[in-house]
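User: Can you help me understand a structure? I only have the sequence.
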Amino acid sequence: MTSRAHASGKKRVVVGISGASGSAYGIRLLEILRATPDVETHLVVSRSARQTLQLETSLTAADVEAMADVVHSSVDIGASISSGSFRIHGMVVAPCSIKTMSNLAWGNTGELIARAADVALKERRRVVLMLRETPLHVGHIESMLRVSQAGAIVFPPVPAFYNRPQTVADIVDHSVMRCLDLIDIECEAAPRWGETSRALLAATTTTVPGAQAHSAQGAMTHD
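Assistant: Let's start by predicting it. Here is the structure, written out as tokens:
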């Protein structure tokens, strides 16, 4: 496939949405990328993800697909993104199920999300897996090790609290922003550790006399 957007210099980003809980991550990722002028998104929604979308959101699969520039069927192994000659900037699976990660780890690439990720890894391109599962047994951990050794980044969307999130959307935004950092896409969807957190620390410690040094040191060292 030849893309006019790519010819004009846009970055192709493949987004996979698997059937794990946490479809809000994939949706928000698409929303942010859609508002990023130099990005062209290629979306794959797995069969299980379509069911999860119905359970977790008020959106249909068609609503989500409308957010992407290009949509590929999860069973289309002949899609453009299944070939290494189709250049992409990076790929994110959000959320990433254990099944999808394990398929990638063990070379079971019969569905397009795993196939596209496998191709991206062999071409030494960045792949980020927003893994959604807990607790983990040893089989899960072995798969995490294998995909990491192959070059993927396993990124469980662990929430940050130093920015004092007020809503679920705040938590989602922070994880999506950190995920986009890993594929070098500029995004400032949430407060970062730095000026905002230092201001919060200052406000907190000034209201607790005698605790300033201890609070600041503890927060900065992440004990």
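Now, to help you interpret it: Residues 1-5, 206-222 have pLDDT under 50 and may be disordered. Residues 4-181 form a domain with the Rossmann fold fold (CATH 3.40.50.1950). Let me know which part you'd like to focus on.
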